Amino acid sequence: MFYDHQQIEKKWQKYWEDNQTYKTSNNTDKPKFYVLDMFPYPSGAGLHVGHPLGYIASDIYARYKRHQGFNVLHPVGYDSFGLPAEQYAIQTGQHPAITTEQNINRYEEQLRKIGFSFDWSREVRTSDASYYKWTQWIFIELFHSWYNKDTDKAESISALIQHFEEKGTEGLNANQNDELNFTAEEWKSASEMDKEDILLNYRLAYRAETTVNWCPALGTVLANDEIKDGKSERGGFPVFQKKMMQWSMRISAYSERLLQGLKTLDWSQPLKDSQEYWIGKSQGAQVRFNVEGHDEIVEVFTTRPDTIFGATFMVLAPENPLVETITTDAQKAEVDTYIEETSKKTERDRMSDVKNVSGAFTGSYAINPFSGEKMPIYISDYVLMGYGTGAVMAVPAHDERDHRFAKKFNLEIKKVVETEEDVQEKSFDSKDSVCVNSDFLNGLNYNDAKSKIISEIENKGIGHGTTNYRQRDAIFSRQRYWGEPVPIYYKDGMPYTLPTSALPLELPEVEKYLPTEDGDPPLGNAKTFAWDEANQKIVDTNLIDEKTVFPLELSTMPGWAGSSWYFLRYMDPKNEEVFTNKELSDYWGQVDLYIGGSEHATGHLLYSRFWNMFLKDRGYINHDEPFQKLINQGMILGMSAFVYRIDGTNQYVSKNLAKEYTTQAIHVDVSLLKGTTDELDTEAFKAWRPDYADAEFILEDGKYITGREVEKMSKSKYNVVNPDDICNEYGADGLRLYEMFLGPLEQSKPWNTQGLSGVYGFLKKFWNLYFNGENFEVSDEEPTKAEYKVLHTLIKKVVYDIENFSFNTSVSSFMIAVNELQKIKCNKRNILQPLAVIISPYAPHICEELWSLLGNSESIEFEKFPVLNEEYLVEDEILYPISVNGKMKFKISLSAQLSAKEVEELVLQDEKMVQILDGKTPKKIIVVLHKIVNIVI
Ligand code: ANZ
């Protein structure tokens, strides 16, 4: 019977939509299971076959869990704010909302074609006002919270105010920007402005001066990856490091919890390692050094306080505010020039450039509190202002960067030899270092020496032991248009949150998506974007009078805001009263399985864990960690194709002749190849682009053969394969099976269209099991043991595979089972009916069709997954090979229930054996039960 995949798939996709088959109920007594995909950014290019890989895996798992009797939440949505739509708007004037809508429609159409069991009714879009209303609400909550280190959680800012009113800062243990000290009286007599200023020091969403990459020509702050060699990637304009008032998120308050939480998660070790590295916990000490002739002190953070005897100079970050006060007149010019140079480098450049040591002397000296010696104070860009205290004590004999610096500036190098490790440790250049021996730490191992020196530092009152985290607070403002407006207005320059009743603060219309002439972000172009405090509404910008009408914040939120909590919104996507009802978030709880790309290892997965912990602290949800199990799917690689242009001509030479010329390899679109071969359709190539219209070709055997290479699948490499084309030709079921069949989920693997026909052949064979010629025909006869064995072997294998996320091996088992059933001509209902259920998570359309042909009126989705009966797997008969003097002579089938003795007897009675023995008595008989019988005569 003809397997008409197109008609079948269309029919079932319509059925699922009409019957809302995958709509998830919140009211059920079934246990819950939450399967989530990292939601896509809908780009203009649409999906290629690499995108659905993870979605197919999670869909199989979701369907499997439904068959197992779980209430499965398997939603989809769009991360729809972001740069590409805005960039396009700048070029074309097209409103990003329009492009975004078009892209989403295209994505939805493509996703629906693949037959995912998403509950479409729960779809969210981060750029919808009904969604970002709650992103803004969370921002407001963060603004009104602080981190209490004693209770180890975020608390309401009103609790902090109460503390100030009662005790000032006494007994306060908070996460903050600057250490402040004041009494309750001082707090009470402070002005409202001063109070607000103080509170900003503690808020979890706060405004502070931070160093950013500023590009004056583009009028915007750029992210590190938008800069190449100190210039903007777009336009090549110079970029400077600049201090700007920016919104930040106090994620650093959560560093320890983010670290500890990892232990409770079922994530891969490399993923945990990268989070751990990013958080970067290090234990050491903060030590204060006096500066000769100044009242100022230099405070350093060191992980090796035990090396303080070998500290011979100090290095400050060029941005350290102390630099200005301690630099002598004689050194001022040199120091200023150096600071100016540093401002052109990004932090990343500063960290990665370890070869070129540079710096300047301030002219001042610090005093080593242990040796009493003078230490010249330098500035250098290898010391970063944002880490530790922005200053280091340099120990050139023990630290590589300090060593390079000492060599360059001809500074003293002293090796400290007191601990066992020190003796073993290789010095960078032992010849150039003087050894100092401190009796104080003599003979101690590294850890003991470290604790001893820390207590001594504390005794001397010059510092204390401390833990530092590399993770910084996250900058939250973007000078962009296409993002969530920050719900803040300014009164006398001080930020205030909008009342939640004013939410959503809608993104205003603007004429231009570029910064204003005054250098304000694009929202500065909006005509109606001011807050009327008296009337509690958004009004015309011209009305700003700083009395009752105030300016609103003009920057927008970063891309990660909306994606940091979307998994909670899916639980209750339409709720207008709250971001998600508490009972529902209790019911759905953690995401049980989260699948997505490894590129989100440190960004999204840290920010969303942080927001989730915060919402837990404030009592809105009940679980600390959002994602219990996480799998990173591998990448699908494309097979790029190349033509070889002879330099300076428009002549193209076929691959195997190219060595004879000087050529340049140029990507060609893989759709220009003939069928599934490497041969270029030269006419199609000429028509591809005007540049190639009069291309000439040097052929081999009358053909132009392209070069092929495996690369990341990407539109820019012209190697993308569109899933729509595959669905048309082989069906969504073919695509789904094939993507899984390609290899283990977590590995990267090349896409090779040739393998598709094999999978399609399997589907046809599977289909035909249920047909006799043109007629659907299954028999109600009881299956044989052999038939049951095929079925139950498959159940055992597939259950194991799915539960271990080994989807590729299930596909091979399907093929084996279908081949065997075909061989034994099985058409029994009791085999074929459960078979359809087993295959349905992978190939849902064909299985629904067969299920309905089998006479069922409900969707196959609600059928229980077949249960394994081990009895069918017990072997009845064993086919024993009989080996005589090491040679296999014949085989004999015997009951598996027989003992070794019984097997021996039956073998000896066998007619063939009697002939071989020819009256002799065997010297030895060895029966390996269920395997083989060895006889020596
Ligand atoms: C003396 C010393 C001796 C150091 C030694 C290391 C080795 P992690 O592990 O990353 O925390 N450091 C401190 N603040 C810095 C800053 N703002 N910019 C650049 N470097 C900074 O590294 C901490 C170590 O890095 C500190 O310990 C300090 O150098 C340096 F044999 O102090 B150490």
UniProtKB/TrEMBL annotation:
Name of the top EC class for this enzyme: ligase
Residues annotated to bind ATP: K715
Localization annotation: Cytoplasm
One Gene Ontology term of the molecular function aspect: ATP binding
Any single Gene Ontology cellular-component annotation: cytosol
This protein's record includes keyword Aminoacyl-tRNA synthetase: yes
All residue ranges annotated as the Leucyl-tRNA synthetase editing domain in the record: 278-457
This protein's record includes keyword Transcription: no
UniProt KW keywords: Aminoacyl-tRNA synthetase, ATP-binding, Cytoplasm, Ligase, Nucleotide-binding, Protein biosynthesis
EC numbers on record: 6.1.1.4
Residue stretches making up the Methionyl/Valyl/Leucyl/Isoleucyl-tRNA synthetase anticodon-binding domain: 790-901
Domain Aminoacyl-tRNA synthetase class Ia: 707-738
Gene3D superfamilies xref list: HUPs, Isoleucyl-tRNA Synthetase, Domain 1
Reactions mediated catalytically: tRNA(Leu) + L-leucine + ATP = L-leucyl-tRNA(Leu) + AMP + diphosphate
Coiled coil: none
Record InterPro entries: aa-tRNA-synth_I_CS, aa-tRNA-synth_Ia, Leu-tRNA-ligase, Leu_tRNA-synth_edit, M/V/L/I-tRNA-synth_anticd-bd, Methionyl/Leucyl_tRNA_Synth, Rossmann-like_a/b/a_fold, tRNAsynth_Ia_anticodon-bd
Domain Methionyl/Leucyl tRNA synthetase, residue spans: 38-143
Motif 'KMSKS' region boundaries: 712-716
HAMAP family membership: Leu_tRNA_synth_B
Protein name, per record: Leucine--tRNA ligase
